[in-house]
Design goal:
Helix content: 40-55%
Largest sheet: none
Number of helices: 2
Shape: elongated
Length: 48
């Protein structure tokens, strides 16, 4: 799929990559723990 460099999609992708490079991402392990808890009695809050 192609996104023009000035498209909103491209801008959001670049912003997300910049957040990751700045250390603002959520580790995959925490996301997976959260997803695994869905529908259980001990559902976890979304990681931040």
């Amino acid at each position: 799929m192609y996104f023009a460099p000035d498209s909103w999609e491209h801008k959001h992708i670049r912003a997300g990559l910049a957040e990751l490079e700045a250390g603002q991402g959520v580790p995959n392990e925490r996301v997976m723990e959260w997803l695994d808890s869905w529908g259980t009695e001990n559902e976890l809050p979304a990681p931040k």
